[in-house]
Amino acid sequence: MMENSMILLNAQVQFLETKLAIVHIPLHLYSHFIQPILRLLTLTDGADEVDGLPRRKWAYPNAFTNISVTTIECSVVCPRRLVDELFRPLIERLDAKAKQAVIISNDDFVVIQVGGEGMEAGQRVLDLTAPLALAGISIFFITSYYSDFVLVPYNSKSTVISALEERGFAFEPVSNGHGANMTNVSSPLHSHNRNSSSSSSIDLLQSPGTPPPATVAEWQTKTFSTLHRHDILPLVDESLELRTCAGYRSDSADIHDAIQLGIFKCLLTNPRFMSITLTQTDTVSLTLDQELLSQFPSSGEGILLQNDQTYFAIVFDLRKLPEESTGIICGVAGRLLDRLGDEGQGEGTFNMSYLSTARTGNVIVREDEVGEALEALIEEEAMSVDGINVVANGH
Question: Which residues belong to any copy of the CASTOR ACT domain (predicted)?
Fold first, then answer.
C-alpha cells in the first residue's frame, strides 16, 4: 500500500489496501439480489473516528466498492469477505440453472487509485497501464467522478510493480515499511509521446504458453481480430443519455440520507444504466441514466454535484468470449485515442472514461463525440484480420 501518494502527471496514485471479488449477475436475476446490494450500500463499521479524526458522514467504511447495472448485466465489485457474507448464501438457494449463471471471480483483485481532475484523466490512466498491458497483466478500469481505478489481480501485485519499474516508474519504501511511493520518472506524456502512451493501453492477457505481442500495434490488431471473430460489435443506445455526478460533501445527516434514498429508489426501478462507486476518501460517485436524476431532490438543494455534459456509453457485450475472458475495453480505448486524440485529428484531446464490469466493456464519451468514436470502432472492426488466436482478459 502506498501510504503517501506522489504526483503522477498531476494525479495522485496509490494502491488501496483491499482484496476484491467481482460478481456477474444476469439482468433476469437482478431482482433476486436487490437485498444484498442495498445491504452493501448501508454498511457501517460503527467507528466514530478514523485515525483519530471524526468519521465523515459521507465516507464509506471499505476501501472500494462498485455496483453497476448496465444494458447487459449487473456487476458488483466489493471485498471478497462481503461477497461471501452477502451474496453467496443467496446464490446457494437458487436453482441449478440460475446458480450457474451467477459468476464470482476466482481471483482476488487489488485497486490502484489514480486521482486528479481534468480532461486528461483518461490519458493518465493509459500512461499508467501501458506497461501492464505489455507485461500481459489483466486489468479492469472504473472511472468515478473524482478518480480512475485500475483493478489488477492481487497475486500479480509484485509483477505489476516490476512491470511499472521496468517502464520507468520509480518505487520507494515509506517510513512504516508497508508500502511504496510511486512516481513515473519517464512518463511518455512528459516527453509528449502520444503514440507510445495512448496506443499502448491494450491490457489483454495471452492464453498459457502464448508469448505476448512485442509491439502495441500487434496488441491492437489482435484485439480487434478477437472482437471480429466472436461477432462483437460496439453498440450505442441513442435513447440512453447518461450523466456523471457525486454526492455533495457534507456531514449533514439529512443530505446523506437524501442521497442514499435517491440511490435506493434508482436501484429499485430496475435502472437501464447506473454505476455507483464508493470509497473511504470521496463521496459517492454516480454515472447514471439521466432520467434517474428525478429520484433525487433538485440540484438547488445541494444534494448532487453534477457534470453538465451529456454522455453515451459505447458498449461491448463480452459474454460471447471464452469463459476465462473478461473484456478488451482498454485496447478499444487506446485505439480511440490514436484515431481521435491530438495526433489523430489535431482538434484537441479526445474525452472518454471507462467502466469495466464483469462481462461488459463500456467506453463513455461525450454526446458530441459519440458519432466519430463509433465510426472509428466500426472501421477497425471491418479492418480486422481473421486467423489470429488470442484470449482477452480484463478491460
Answer: 105-166
Domain count, the chain: 1
Residue 67: which residues within 8 A CB-CB, separation 6 or more?
37, 40, 41, 74, 75, 76, 77, 267, 275, 276
**What's the length of the chain?**
395
Retrieve residue 185's grid coordinates.
520518472
Write the CB contacts of 32 (distance below 8 Å, at least 6 apart in sequence): 90, 94, 98
Residue with cell 435502472: 271
Among residues 352, 354, 318, the alpha carbon closest in space to that of 338 is found at 352
CA distance 311 to 133: 27
Q: What's 120's domain CATH number?
A: 3.30.2130.10
Residue 57, Cβ density class (10 Å: 0-12 exposed, 13-18 middle, ≥19 buried): middle
Residue 145 has φ and ψ, to the nearest 5°, of -60, -35
Distance (Å, rounded) from C-alpha 367 to C-alpha 70?
A: 18
Question: Strand, helix or coil at 11?
Answer: strand
In Å, what is the CA distance from 171 to each residue of 106, 167, 262?
A: 29, 12, 42
Q: Which residue range forms the structural domain that includes residue 139?
A: 6-200
Q: Is 154 part of any domain?
A: yes
Q: Within its chain, how far is the Cα of 383 from the centroid?
A: 27
Paired residues of 66 in beta bridges: 77, 277
CA dist 210 → 158, 280, 351, 370 (Å):
21, 40, 34, 35
Residue 175 lies in a domain: yes
pLDDT at 186 over 80: no
Q: What is the pLDDT of residues 336-394, one digit of tens each?
A: 877 876 544 444 467 788 899 999 989 999 999 899 999 888 865 554 433 333 323 35
Residue 341 corresponds to which cell in the numbers above? 486524440
